[in-house]
Amino acid sequence: MEGGLGQNSVPSSSSFDKSTVLDVKPLRCMLPIFPMSSQGPSSGQYPSGFAPFFPFGGPQESHAWTDPDQDTPPSGVTLNVPMPTPLRSFRSPIASTPPKHRALRGSSSRSSKRKTQQSQESLMDLSSVVGISPAQRADGNREVVNLVLMEFDALRRRISQLADAGEFVSGVTKRGDLKSGNVLMTAGIRTNMNKRVGAVPGVEIGDIFFFRMELCVVGLHAQSMGGIDSLTIKDGLEEEPLAVSIVSSYEYDDHADDDDVLIYSGQSGNFGKRDRVACDQKLQGGNLALERSSRRHNEVRVIRGMKDTANPSAKIYVYDGLYKIQDSWIEKGKHGSVVFKYKLVRMPRQRSAFSVWKSVEKWKTDSSSRTGLILSDLSSGAESVPVPLVNDVDHERLPGGFTYFHSLRYPKPVSLMQSSNGCNCTKPCVPGDLNCSCIRRNEGDLPYTGNGILVSRKSLVHECGPTCRCFPNCKNRVSQMGLKHAFEVFKTSDRGWGLRSWDPIRAGSFISEYAGEVIDKGNLHQNEELAMKDEHAFNTNQIYPPFKWNHTPQLLEEVSSNDSSEDYDIPSPLVISAKECGNVARFMNHSCSPNVFWQPVVYEENNQSFLHIAFFSLKHIPPMTELTYDYGVSHSDRAEGSGIPSGRKKCLCGSSKCRGSFG
DNA sequence: GCCTACTCACTTCC
DNA sequence: CGGAAGTGAGTAGG
């Protein structure tokens, strides 16, 4: 803010509408001197048309908050001296490997200013490594948004993995979400830094997020904790704040009966805060911005915080599009203090997002309320969760006959190529325990985070299997624990049957394995030919376009970066036919911009190791979004000229990156 | 440019 | 499972 105007005036009061302010009492917080007068705003709703807000509340009051005894520390001393972090107790009995990983880069230490600066500069270089230009940092698009989110979660997963393994040095084991966000922000791996009113390029209505930092790095909502984000506009000489986005939380009693309406409470007032005395909210900061936005009728982005049913202590954020503030008033909160209320109404002709969640809620309590329901469980109980079959586009009743089976069937006993009998752990396997043969095969890592999220793509993931002695609750059995989401098989408008989920899916989640009969004619060529003819075949020997999913190692100062290849490395080619028998995976369609990828997984059964194909989510997937993976390109058909080579299908994925055909 | 206050986080521990 | 407490990060404003 410029300091040149009116030296004696309080800066933010320059925008006051004085005609309004003169005849009202200020709204105050913790007011020992000016108790709320009886003429002050009363509780209850104001009649519409009456301007309920009183622009007041400037910095002149703020001294009431400051504690004169609170002194700033002498220069040169910082309050944020990193404390040594004790080893987590559950790790201590394990002989852990010496830490091969160093502290995170980024601005975690404030003790050395210059060092931080250098670190920032070198991190800035990295944004080009990741592929973000300065222009893209300012204004994004779908591709950049996806790239930034991918990098965020990859880094967060890796930090989580290191924390699980107890491999961090000083004090950075907690809050991988904040740390990852901080590193990315420092490195310039972010987008839409230009604050704006209205839509954010590259962020689509319905997109879901699992951390507030994700909203920050894509520029949807720049406050890491604050619920109201605003920008300051210049209107002549006046500056005024406008709200650009809000985050609503179910904890805040924000609900309305209509899915397109949101009743939002203003910020501060210690509403619902522990250990604090509730007090009146003031018309400043975010509240003032909302009030200004209500007068100017500008669009406000709404992000709804939802309870994550899979993990009740966590939250999921749903971008629900643009709203306008239709009404605002003052209420008395539970403790008798003043609370600002805003009624936001969703703008018409936007694709549905939050309302989809509400529909799913209904279907979950009563699946017959799902329109177009044909079968309540296509798996006939083979899965622990029912798999509904739905068609609300035409009259086709059933996908072609097949038997539901959840895993692989081998046509004949497999020759004993290599005999092995799994690990001998007498408890759940732990990362870093090189006595565990499974962990050792994974280069000392547990490939999954504690909640079963795949950390990195690997050439091959070694899971513990039925032959392993470790506890069945070992974290290294993710692909064997069955479906974790409420999937539905549905009829698409133009690509036959497809698969989607009623539940939100976070990046790296296990979707399903590719079940079916293993084709083994003893001859690679014959297997390939069968695979070509079989619409429901999965063939590891296709050419799969490479893509990056793992974190950028340079963003972490890892001495020996566990920079494993993202290329597949399969012991021997595998062809699986799901024509006669299979599971939900046989319904996944192809896309050139998929949201699911496959990962070879191997584990031991009956003293032999078997290869399986496991699918994981590539990114966060909102409910009711079709699940797709890249079918790859057949060797025999590659490098053909124009047109669609025989044996391939015209691609209808609609992606901007579409190759035109697949198979 | 540094510092501090403010905030509808998130995890872990009990 | 529910609540409490601790440890946090970006941004605005001084």
Please describe the topology of this protein.
Blueprint: H1 18-21, E1 101-104, H2 113-130, H3 134-138, H4 142-164, H5 176-187, E2 208-209, H6 212-217, E3 228-235, E4 238-249, E5 261-265, H7 286-296, E6 299-307, E7 315-332, E8 338-346, H8 354-365, E9 373-375, E10 389-390, E11 403-404, E12 408-409, H9 437-441, E13 461-462, E14 487-491, E15 497-501, E16 510-513, E17 516-518, H10 524-533, E18 537-539, E19 556-558, E20 575-577, E21 581-582, E22 589-590, E23 596-605, E24 608-617, E25 628-629, E26 649-650, E27 661-662
The chain binds a DNA duplex (14 and 14 nucleotides) through helix 5, helix 6, strand 3 and strand 4.
Q: Explain this structure to me?
A:
This protein is of the alpha+beta class and 663 residues long. Helices cover 16% and strands 20% of the residues. The chain has 10 helices and 27 strands. The chain has helices at residues 18-21, 113-130, 134-138, 142-164, 176-187, 212-217, 286-296, 354-365, 437-441, 524-533; strands at residues 101-104, 208-209, 228-235, 238-249, 261-265, 299-307, 315-332, 338-346, 373-375, 389-390, 403-404, 408-409, 461-462, 487-491, 497-501, 510-513, 516-518, 537-539, 556-558, 575-577, 581-582, 589-590, 596-605, 608-617, 628-629, 649-650, 661-662. Strands 2, 3, 4, 5, 6, 7 and 8 form a 7-stranded mixed β-sheet that branches. Strands 9-10-14-15 form a 4-stranded mixed β-sheet, with no helix packed on it. A 4-stranded mixed β-sheet has the order 12-17-20-18, with helices on one face. β7 and β8 (338-346) form a beta hairpin. The termini are far apart. Residues 1-103 and 106-118 have low confidence and may be disordered. The structure holds a DNA duplex (14 and 14 nucleotides). Residues 485-632 form the SET domain. It is found in: Chromosome, Centromere; Nucleus.
